[in-house]
Design a protein that fits this description.
seven-stranded mixed β-sheet; 285 residues; Double-stranded beta-helix; 15 strands; alpha+beta
């Protein structure tokens, strides 16, 4: 059986059927998923109770995996970035702890790993345990946002470069530099990426932004930062956004080259356990 796809968002996002992701993907299946991500941006695979070995085998099919080495948030398995309300031992993560402060920034609109060079290309997030009313994750279609800009505005933006930094996103939620380890400060220096990216599979252009995006390179800081904030606000209007209502054992996969996303607030008593893995670009962007 091939990959079945049904559009569930206004301009992007598809429900994907036909695959048991616990089984190794064939090269043909990998190619089908890649093509679907280029077209739909976000794929929702329901009923996928993957264990760690199966989820890692799945993501590894798509390229070099990202290693979660940040000491501020590292768990027991560096192949994954666990996002939730409890730690590896099931203990609640305190909101005022370093990890709690770091995770709070996931509520900002962001593109995974844009503070890296090469950045993250594809992300897969598995819902392992959810509260009775799960908080949704929101996704933004950065290609539709680009298409909606007037041609004159596109011409002004197309060749700009943006500085991205993990410190920039965290400072927006009150996490200051002294909360990071010296290793993080040394190894996660700011990087630059184009404001507009062209997808290699179809030649479509999109904005490339995130809460990690600090400012326009070569512009005065405040002017460049104001443009970044203006474009994020434009790209996250309701007409460009899909809100996903999670179910247990869903795996949602997205193309970081032309989507943004954010977690929504949840402070309830029931555990929320999500397991993220990703692959990076082969070359600097």
């Amino acid at each position: 059986m091939g990959l079945g796809l049904r559009r569930i968002g206004k301009t992007f996002v598809a429900q994907a059927t036909g695959y048991d992701l616990r089984q190794p993907l064939t090269p043909t299946q990998v190619a089908e998923v890649e093509a679907a991500l280029a077209e739909h941006g976000v794929l929702v695979f329901g009923g996928q109770p993957l264990d760690e070995t199966q989820q890692y085998a799945f993501i590894k099919s798509f390229g070099p995996t990202t290693v979660a080495t940040l000491k501020e948030i590292a768990g027991n398995n560096q192949n994954f970035f666990d996002v939730g309300t409890v730690d590896d031992e099931g203990k609640p993560i305190a909101g005022d702890s370093v990890k709690g402060e770091y995770l709070r920034a996931n509520r900002l609109w962001h593109t995974d790993g844009s503070f890296n060079q090469p950045p993250i290309r594809l992300t897969a997030l598995l819902a392992r345990e959810l509260p009775p009313v799960p908080p949704p994750t929101e996704y933004a279609d950065m290609r539709a946002a680009w298409d909606a800009l007037p041609a004159s505005r596109q011409a002004q933006l197309e060749h700009l470069m943006v500085e991205h930094s993990v410190l920039r996103s965290r400072e927006q939620t009150g996490m200051t530099a002294e909360k990071f380890t010296s290793d993080t400060l040394q190894t996660r220096k700011p990087v630059s990426h184009p404001l507009v990216r062209t997808h290699p599979a179809n030649g479509r252009k999109s904005l490339y932004l995130a809460s990690h995006a600090s400012h326009i390179i070569g512009w005065p800081l405040e002017k460049g930062r104001a443009l970044v904030e203006e474009l994020i606000a434009f790209a996250t209007q309701e007409r460009f956004v899909y809100s996903h209502p999670w179910q247990v054992h869903e795996l949602v996969m997205w193309d970081d080259r032309w989507t943004m996303h954010r977690a929504t607030a949840y402070d309830g008593p029931h555990p929320r356990k999500m397991r993220q893995c990703s692959v990076r670009e082969l070359e600097p962007v």
